[in-house]
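Reading a protein record of the kind used here takes only a little practice. The record below shows the convention in full.

——
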Amino acid sequence: MSRPPRSAGAKTPNRFSRPGNARPRRDEDDDTVILYGFHPVIEALNNPSRKIRRLLATENAIKRLAEEGVQPKVQPEIVRPGDIDRLLTPDSVHQGLYAEADALPQPRMRDLPDTGIVLVLDQVTDPHNVGAILRTAAAFAVDAIMTTNRHSPAATGVLAKAASGALEHVPFITVTNLSRGLDELAERGYRRVGLDSDAPENLDDISLAPPLALVLGAEGKGLRQKTREYCDVLARMDMPGAIRSLNVSNAAAIALHAAHLARSR
């Protein structure tokens, strides 16, 4: 399917163009990444590995880019806020910035560091949760997040907005078969620790020294049985309160903090 042409509009006094009606210029089946919101777009513009295809910005957003000292990689198209609204869902907060970009290159398994930390997500499908996990992963310098090609959200749109720029700092490794991916991590020497509220071991009592793979399951379902079988150990997080299980993004944050403390000792 061919892409619709870029809208032609009258030239403005500045060096940017103003399209009369902004429209997506991506094919439905290509790998275009949609980024919107100040932090996701700014981090993408500052990432030398990210190729920006198209940038839409309001006049206020252009001023803010200049104040932040950010140089756009492509010539921005000046638009009204409503032009970006039409490209997104009604509840999307874009702050006057919208970008279409290429996906970032994926690292190979052999490129992971010998003392690294990887998060493995077993069918965690909520993009808000994965975005929150990405933010935490970036804060704790996680080396990669592993997901499957299916049953996981694409690294674009809502996920990128929830990640608030962290998508540019934590690479994704997508695999067809999670069991095989866990096997490859084991071959690299990574200890695979699955988080499970009913596990016999307490997370505080096991070694979290790197190289480490923390394996998290979806809310409600948790880890699948086959995924459990490919973990070296299953561990629970004992909570002092009445609620025993946590949102997967909160569980990831606590586990990464524990791993950080173990790494620092």
